[in-house]
Write a sequence for this structure.
């Protein structure tokens, strides 16, 4: 009898994955991880220079760029069409595009609330709609990974009245679509990190009064005793986008060093 290594379950070689928000820290790390594992990636985002710079780091025959954010249905459809045009199919998506606007609710402009909800909820919904249409047409199942946050489960005292509800909505979008598409073999899960190093959070890693105070407050709630780095996502992304997670759907995977356990 031929023994097949269980590690084959984690194989993503030849799969085509769309990454929205690819110019961000998480999207960039996902692109590097997936191409190193043999996958094709389609990098979508609003910062063309950043997309092109990232693409230069990756194997040329494994990457394509689409200079769009999922702001409209046409944008989302164009992202999917680019994947099919270049690589012939689509196997999954990492929807990591999103924003935050921080202010006390009594001071927050309605426009800022709408910006957060449009980027984090409407953009994820539009991405799922376009990706779902393609995956259903292909008839081979697939994996959808939405990027949520520990703030979809926990409130925050520092003016997150837009961000926290938006990420809670992402969690329920994953659960709703998992239920809707399960019969078609399409899995939908949410990846929920706590703070990780990025351009937006660099100040929390800085060795100064503000960074040190904020970091120490966070670390007091993280059992593993450190903040996250982008490469902490690599294993979870391979797991969620490969057959290793073939029976996992509708779940929120907290990649948070134990933050939500406390």
């Amino acid at each position: 009898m031929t023994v097949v290594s269980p590690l084959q379950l984690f194989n993503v070689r030849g799969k085509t994955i769309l990454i929205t928000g690819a110019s961000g820290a998480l999207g960039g790390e996902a692109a590097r991880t997936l191409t190193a594992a043999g996958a094709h990636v389609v990098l979508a985002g609003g910062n063309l220079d950043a997309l092109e710079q990232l693409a230069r780091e990756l194997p040329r025959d494994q990457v394509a760029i689409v200079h769009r954010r999922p702001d409209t249905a046409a944008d989302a459809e164009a992202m999917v069409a680019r994947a099919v045009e270049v690589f012939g199919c689509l196997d999954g998506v990492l929807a990591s595009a999103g924003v935050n606007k921080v202010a006390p609710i009594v001071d927050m402009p309605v426009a800022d609330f709408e910006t957060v909800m449009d980027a984090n909820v409407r953009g994820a919904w539009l991405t799922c709609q376009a990706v779902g249409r393609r995956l259903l047409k292909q008839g081979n199942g697939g994996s959808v990974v939405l990027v949520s946050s520990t703030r979809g489960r926990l409130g925050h005292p520092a003016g997150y009245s837009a961000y926290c509800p938006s990420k809670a909505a992402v969690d329920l979008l994953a659960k709703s679509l998992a239920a809707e598409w399960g019969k078609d073999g399409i899995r939908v899960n949410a990846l929920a990190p706590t703070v990780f190093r990025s351009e937006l959070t660099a100040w929390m890693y800085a060795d100064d009064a503000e960074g040190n105070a904020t970091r120490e407050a966070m670390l007091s709630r993280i059992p593993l005793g450190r903040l996250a780095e982008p490469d902490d996502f690599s294993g979870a992304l391979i797991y969620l986008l490969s057959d290793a997670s073939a029976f996992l759907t509708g779940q929120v995977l907290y990649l948070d060093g134990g933050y939500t356990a406390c």
The chain has two domains: 6-193+231-253, 199-227. DSSP finds eight helices and seven strands in the chain.
